[in-house]
Amino acid sequence: MSETNPFSFPFMQHAFLGCFLVSLLAGTLGWLMLLRRQAFAAHALPHIGFSGAAAAVWLHLPPLAGMMAASMVGGLFMGQEQRGRQHPTQRDTMTGLILAASLGIGVWCLHEANEASSQTTTLLFGDVLGLDGPTLGMLAGLVSVCLGGVAILWRPLLFSSLCPSLAEAQGLSPTRLGQLFLLLAALAAAACAEIAGALLCFSLMVGPAAAALKLELPPFRGMVCSVLGALLLSWGGLLLAWYSDIPLPFWISLGGVGLYLLAGTVMTRKALRPVRNP
Amino acid sequence: MKEARLTCRDVSLQVGGHPVLHHATLDVPLEGLTILRGQNGAGKTCFLRALMGLLPLQGGELLINGHPPARARRHCGYMPQKADDTAPMLPVISHVMACLDGTHWGFPAPRKTRRKARALLAEVGALPLASRPLGALSGGERQRVALAQALAGSPRLLILDEPFAALDRASHEALLQLFSQLHQQKKVSLFITVHGPLQTTGLDLPMREITLSKGALHV
């Protein structure tokens, strides 16, 4: 894009701050979603949110509000999982149906709001360079709500994710917990879509989390690693986009795959290391 | 807490249209080791799940130590027949830590929880496995970790579904010795299901057998 210092521009400073906020969310929620085998939900939530944003554009409302509302409603329905013989097939079927229905509604809303095509493109591909003060404030609020929610739910969520049978036997409801968690994930997906767009925010949530899980780290360290990975992808992607003129989502998506391959290489080298005699 | 006791009053239990218990009545102490026997498909696992309050009864009353399952389960540890393996890449210690106060809100105190988890693993002879990924364990090792998880809530009663399945003879005997040790040192009673022969001679703990057959329970 330019040979000048990217940090000297206010819009780039906003972009770095926005990426920092979103990486906190994507790393944390993404790690939990993969642990709970909800990668499909992580993919579906921003798309469901996109339909809400499209409806908001049509109704002349803020797109982020529409995105949050639709993702949260979608998350509530997707969280209607029951443990049993059909699980997780039942969960994936539910996610697929909600995704299909919301995309259909989204297409209709876009058709009705055909004058707002630039806004639609922004929703699909993100607009990290267009972040202003109020949007950053809203992102900071979302991050606080989501991370606060994760902190409150932390023990039951981890218990029911790692030992679902035992958690249920101790009276925890997988349906209730799943719904609460997906509500938080829906908010996180809406925030991530501001940066990477509905199409590619999935890669920011999944890539670093997959690499952290591949490293077989315990929960807290795994989440910190996932957050750092998301930060590396988003900040690194911003700099690469600045100097290469290739859009940020491209770098985030490929970077996510790169992080996973790197984690795989680290684990292979670790496995090949000779065992020391005691 | 009262003496460990299992009471069934006119209990009917059906799962997927298949009758497991039909107006069954039973009242037995659960001190020591109680073995529930029955043929494959008799409904032993379903009965255990009903004991943990995971399956609703169609009729009658089921009490553990005088309390219904939803209340009594706070004092019960449960080990399912097939242990959970949803996150095989995470270390064993994380799986045990997750079970400690897992129903409470918020973050745990990490050092204290880790210390407790290590103590539980040491109790079942699985401390050397603490940093290994769960998915890399053998059947016998996984069983020991599952037992440590079941002990996480300091239960007075352990409900174990087929704990000897897929264990070789040596692991079999070691597990029985561990049961005896748990009873003597921590006063934990055990309620287990078994469908094959079980060599219990020389075991130093009170024992009784219950048979589940054709919808009825017999001592």
Automatic annotation (TrEMBL), chain A:
Membrane topology: Multi-pass membrane protein
Main location: membrane
GO cellular component, one term: ATP-binding cassette (ABC) transporter complex
InterPro entries the UniProt entry points to: ABC_BtuC-like (IPR037294), ABC_TroCD (IPR001626)
Location(s), subcellular: Cell membrane
Protein's GO biological process: response to zinc ion; transmembrane transport; zinc ion transport
Ranges that cross the membrane: 15-35, 47-73, 131-154, 180-202, 223-244, 250-268
Alphabetic keyword roster: Cell membrane, Ion transport, Membrane, Transmembrane, Transmembrane helix, Transport, Zinc, Zinc transport
Keyword Transmembrane recorded: yes
SUPFAM superfamilies per the UniProt record, alphabetical: ABC transporter involved in vitamin B12 uptake, BtuC
Top-level taxon: Bacteria
Primary role: Involved in the high-affinity zinc uptake transport system.
Family: Belongs to the ABC-3 integral membrane protein family.
Name of the protein: High-affinity zinc uptake system membrane protein ZnuB
Lineage of source species: Bacteria, Pseudomonadati, Pseudomonadota, Alphaproteobacteria, Acetobacterales
UniProtKB/TrEMBL annotation, chain B:
GO MF term list: ATP binding
UniProt keywords, alphabetically: ATP-binding, Ion transport, Nucleotide-binding, Transport, Zinc, Zinc transport
The keyword Transferase is assigned to this record: no
InterPro entries from the UniProt entry: AAA+_ATPase, ABC_transporter-like_ATP-bd, ABC_transporter-like_CS, Metal_Ion_Import_ABC, P-loop_NTPase
Listed SUPFAM superfamilies: P-loop containing nucleoside triphosphate hydrolases (SSF52540)
SMART domains from the UniProt entry: AAA
Domain ABC transporter, first and last residues per copy: 6-219
Family: Belongs to the ABC transporter superfamily.
PANTHER family reported in the protein's UniProt record: IRON TRANSPORT SYSTEM ATP-BINDING PROTEIN HI_0361-RELATED, METAL TRANSPORT SYSTEM ATP-BINDING PROTEIN TM_0124-RELATED
Protein name: ATP-binding cassette domain-containing protein
Organism of derivation: Bombella apis
Taxonomic lineage of the native organism: Bacteria, Pseudomonadati, Pseudomonadota, Alphaproteobacteria, Acetobacterales
